[in-house]
C-alpha cells in the first residue's frame, strides 16, 4: 500500500511539474519567430488568445476552428508566373516530341519558341487542359512529384518547395497547435497541389481545395482507374472560393489568409460571420528579398482587396516590415 | 536524488501497468458488440489486425487510412424512400401556401394529392431542386436541422436519426479508433447530410462528400452570403463516387462500405488498389427488423454488386444473420 501511495504521489508531482513546465514554455517561447514584433504579429496572437480562452466572449468552440489559406502568393511565391503554369510550360516542352504539329500550332508554338508573352488567358487554359489530362490519377501524381522534386525556379534557381514563406509555415503551425484545422483554398489544381503539400505544409490531401479538371471512372482491361479529362470544371478563384468552401467544408472559416483580389470574396465571407474572425492579406512589399507588387500586377493583383482591408481594419502582413525572414533557407 | 529515482521508477511501473492493462482490455472487450460472431465479423477484425500491425506485410501507414461509407441503406434505412426525398416531400407541403399554382401543377400536384407513385426520376429532381434552393446556406442548414429533429418516419414512427444502424456506428468507431479517417460518400446532398451527421455519426462536415446543388456567392445589402441555386451539379452516384473521392480526398480509400449498385464503382476502385483493401456490402435481408430487398428494389437495388461481391470474395454483411441489433433503440 505504501508503495502504491508513493507511486501515485510521484506521478502526480511529475505530471504537475510537466504541466507547469509546458505552460511556462508556451508563454516564453515565440510561436512566430520569423515575424517581427509589431501590430500585425500582436493582432494575430491577441486573436488566438481570445479565440482559445473559454472564458472569453470571443471563444471559438474546437469543432468550429477552421482556417483557410490561399496558396500562390500567400504560402509560396508566384512570380514571374504561377508555379503551376511553369510546370505546364515544362510539360509542353516535354510532350512536344509526341506532338510534331505543336511547333507550328499556337498556343503551343508560343511556348516552344520562347514567346510566352503572347499567351492569352484562353491560351493558358488550353495549355493547362492539354498538359494536365489524358493520364490516370496515379500517373499525374507521379508526374507532378517528379517535377517538383527536380525543377528549379527560373530566376532564383531554388527548388519550388523551398520558395514557401517561413512566416506562413509558422502561422499554420500556430493555428494547428491551437486546434484549428488548416485548409488550402487555392486557384491551383487540387491534384497538382496534393502531390506535394503534405510534406511541405503538413496539410493532408483532403484539406486541399483547388481548381478541378474533369475526371472519369473507367475500367481499363478490367482494372478500375480515374482518368483525367481536358476540361476545367471548377476555377477556384474569386467568388468561387467561398462557394467551394461551402461545398467542401460546409462551414464558414473563422480565419482566412490571401494575397490578391482573387481571395477577396473568401476574406469577405469569413469576416462577415458572427463571433471572432480574422482576415489577412499578405502584401508583397519586398523587392529585394521577394517581389514587390500589388495594384498593377498581372499575377496576384491586389487592388480592391487592399482598399477593403484598409477600410475594414483587416490585417495586412507587410512582407518587408513584418517578416524577419522570407524563405526557410534564407538563414543558412 | 533518491526521490527522483523513486518517482521515475514509479512512473515507469505505472505506465507499464497501464499499457498492459489496456492491451488486455483491448483483447477482451468486443469492439463490435452488435455483430454476431461469424465469418463477416472475423474478417473485419482480421483485416484491422493486419492493417495496423507494423510488422505485417498488410500494414497500412497511418496517413493512408481512409475509409468511405455510403449513407442511405448503409448507415441508415432508406425505405420506403430515401429519407432526403421524404424531407423534400414534406417541404412541398410546407411551401405550398406560397405557391398557389402547385396543387394543379405536376409534379407538385402529385405530392399534394398523395400520388407520389406517379413521380418519375425527372419529377423527383424537379422537386429536390425546387425545395432545396432559393435560400442562404445558413437558412437551409436551419431548415434541415428543424426537420430532422421533429419529423417522424412514416411507418416506424421513429425520428429518422434513430434509424441508423448500430452495427455500422460501431464499425465506424472501430475504424476511427484504429487511426482511420472516416468519410461519408453518398448520393444524398452534402448540405442536407452535414446538418446532422456530426452529432449522429461523429463525422465532421468536411468529411461528408455528397451530391451538390449549385451555389452562388452574393453580397446582399452589403452582407456576403452563399445562395443555393436550383440546379444539381454533381449527382454523387455510381461512377461519380470514385471521381468525387478523387476530387475531394485525393486518395483511394483502403476500405469502402455500401449497400447498392450505386456503390459498386466505389468498391471496385477501392479493392483494386495495392496492398490490403476491404470492400463490404450491407445486404438487406431482414424483413422483420428492417426491410428485405436487393435485386428488384426501386430504392437501393443490389444486383450486379451482389454478383461481383460474391465472385470477388468481398464481404457481405447479412443483416439478419450478422447483426445482433439493428437500431440503437432496439434494446430498450
TrEMBL record, chains A, B:
<protein>
    <submittedName>
        <fullName>HAD family hydrolase</fullName>
    </submittedName>
</protein>
<dbReference type="InterPro" id="IPR036412">
    <property type="entry name" value="HAD-like_sf"/>
</dbReference>
<dbReference type="GO" id="GO:0016787">
    <property type="term" value="F:hydrolase activity"/>
</dbReference>
<keyword id="KW-0732">Signal</keyword>
<dbReference type="Pfam" id="PF12710">
    <property type="entry name" value="HAD"/>
</dbReference>
<dbReference type="InterPro" id="IPR023214">
    <property type="entry name" value="HAD_sf"/>
</dbReference>
<feature type="signal peptide">
    <location>
        <begin position="1"/>
        <end position="26"/>
    </location>
</feature>
<keyword id="KW-0378">Hydrolase</keyword>
Amino acid at each position: 500500500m505504501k508503495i502504491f501511495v508513493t507511486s501515485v504521489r510521484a506521478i502526480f508531482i511529475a505530471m504537475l511539474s510537466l504541466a507547469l513546465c509546458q505552460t511556462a514554455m508556451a508563454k516564453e517561447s515565440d510561436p512566430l519567430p520569423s515575424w517581427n514584433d509589431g501590430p500585425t504579429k500582436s493582432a494575430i496572437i491577441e486573436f488566438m488568445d481570445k479565440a482559445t480562452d473559454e472564458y472569453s466572449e470571443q471563444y471559438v468552440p474546437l469543432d468550429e476552428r477552421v482556417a483557410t489559406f490561399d496558396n500562390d502568393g500567400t504560402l509560396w511565391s508566384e512570380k514571374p508566373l504561377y508555379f503551376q503554369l511553369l510546370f505546364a510550360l515544362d510539360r509542353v516542352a516535354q510532350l512536344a516530341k509526341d506532338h510534331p504539329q505543336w511547333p507550328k500550332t499556337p498556343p503551343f508554338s508560343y511556348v516552344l519558341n520562347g514567346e510566352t508573352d503572347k499567351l492569352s488567358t484562353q491560351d493558358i487554359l488550353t495549355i493547362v487542359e492539354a498538359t494536365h489530362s489524358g493520364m490516370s490519377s496515379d500517373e499525374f501524381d507521379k508526374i507532378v512529384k517528379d517535377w517538383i522534386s527536380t525543377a528549379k525556379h527560373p530566376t532564383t534557381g531554388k527548388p519550388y518547395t523551398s520558395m514557401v514563406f517561413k512566416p506562413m509555415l509558422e502561422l499554420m503551425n500556430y493555428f494547428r497547435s491551437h486546434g484549428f484545422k488548416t485548409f488550402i483554398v487555392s486557384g491551383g489544381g487540387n491534384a497538382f497541389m496534393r502531390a506535394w503539400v503534405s510534406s511541405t505544409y503538413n496539410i493532408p490531401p483532403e484539406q486541399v481545395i483547388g481548381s478541378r479538371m474533369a475526371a472519369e471512372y473507367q475500367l481499363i482491361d478490367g482494372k478500375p482507374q480515374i482518368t483525367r479529362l481536358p476540361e476545367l470544371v471548377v476555377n477556384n478563384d474569386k467568388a468561387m472560393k467561398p462557394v467551394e468552401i461551402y461545398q467542401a467544408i460546409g462551414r464558414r472559416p473563422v480565419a482566412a489568409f490571401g494575397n490578391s483580389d482573387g481571395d477577396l470574396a473568401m476574406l469577405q465571407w469569413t469576416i462577415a460571420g458572427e463571433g471572432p474572425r480574422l482576415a489577412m492579406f499578405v502584401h508583397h512589399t519586398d523587392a529585394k528579398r521577394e517581389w514587390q507588387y500589388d495594384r498593377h500586377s498581372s499575377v496576384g493583383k491586389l487592388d480592391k482587396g487592399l482598399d477593403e482591408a484598409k477600410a475594414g481594419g483587416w490585417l495586412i502582413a507587410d512582407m518587408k516590415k513584418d517578416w524577419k525572414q522570407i524563405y526557410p533557407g534564407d538563414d543558412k
